[in-house]
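It is worth pausing here to work through a concrete case rather than discussing structure prediction in the abstract. The textbook approach is simple: state the sequence, then state the predicted structure, then interpret. We follow exactly that order.
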Amino acid sequence: QLQASGGGLVQPGGSLRLSCAASGSIFSLAIMDWYRQGPGKQRELVARIMSGGSTDYADSVKGRFTISRDSAKNTVYLQMNNLKVEDTAVYYCHNLLANSWGQGTLVTVSS
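Step two, the predicted structure:
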């Protein structure tokens, strides 16, 4: 099971950190993703972190978002900096191998 949190309202240029707490799985072996779905848009992959720690990002967030994991806490994070209006979306964490999803957390970027 995955529990996402940390969303909220932020002004353009601001920062937020999302958290996703995992339970019931061998978290240290999990490939973890953050997806997002904006208004009227399809769900898209934003960031991925492999079990060994390597990461990958969508071009639209490279240099602004950072995915990380704390295996001791069974938690994956998404640090989002220099947020833009177009980052507004519901953000979901996803365990690739278990194909399990968190409930989503809303991020709204607006002045």
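Step three, interpretation. The first strand starts at residue 2 and ends at 5. The chain has a mean pLDDT of 93.
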